[in-house]
Specification:
about 40% strand, about 5% helix, mainly beta, Jelly Rolls, 13 strands, globular
């Protein structure tokens, strides 16, 4: 696994280290020892799959609050996504800033999202599958988030939003997000 630093402190882009021959290639997609060597402590508590039928489907912006913060490793295994993470750490000098990665089945990149970052994505192709490894189990009482289109954060989504859940559409503005318990 090859770890690439991003503009914000903590998140990493993870590239496969391929071992190729005439059959194709083999690559490790998860290795606790390699993550630890890169300074990432990531105990897997849960694995999730998100199927997105239509291009323009948007999910986000989500995170969990203390004491149930979570880290994620996100990989698109079919189709393509425009993946966005936003720093929501209250004492961070980069709070409110975001980074974007395009994750596709073809580029096989993954994104490490540390605790203290909100996550969301938009599908770019039909029938897109996204796999997540989670460091802690979902805790609904600590689920939080903010609006995907909040002008303060300024995320530019590449497609018109075709599909979004009512829950995500109803999330509060970035400044109104909660750091303890449910989003207001």
């Amino acid at each position: 696994m090859i770890f690439r630093e991003l503009q914000l402190d903590g998140p990493r882009l993870i590239e496969l280290e391929r071992h190729e021959d005439d059959r194709g290639f083999f690559a490790r997609t998860f290795c606790r020892a390699e993550l630890a060597a890169a300074g990432i402590d990531f105990p897997v508590a849960q694995a999730n799959l998100s199927f997105n039928r239509r291009p323009g489907t948007l999910r986000g912006m989500h995170y969990q609050t203390a004491p149930c913060e979570e880290a994620k490793i996100v990989r698109c295994v079919r189709g393509a996504i425009h993946d966005v993470i936003v720093d929501v750490r209250p004492d961070s000098p980069t709070v409110g800033e975001h980074v974007v990665a395009e994750l596709t089945a073809d580029n096989r990149l993954a994104l490490y999202v540390p605790p203290g970052f909100a996550h969301g994505f938009q599908s770019l192709e039909p029938d897109t599958d996204v796999c997540y490894l989670m460091s802690s189990a979902y805790a609904p009482e600590h689920a939080a988030g903010f609006r995907y289109d909040d002008p303060e954060v300024g995320i530019r989504w590449p497609l018109n939003v075709a599909t979004i859940s009512e829950k995500d559409r109803g999330l509060p503005a970035f400044r109104e997000r909660s750091f303890r318990g449910r989003a207001r």
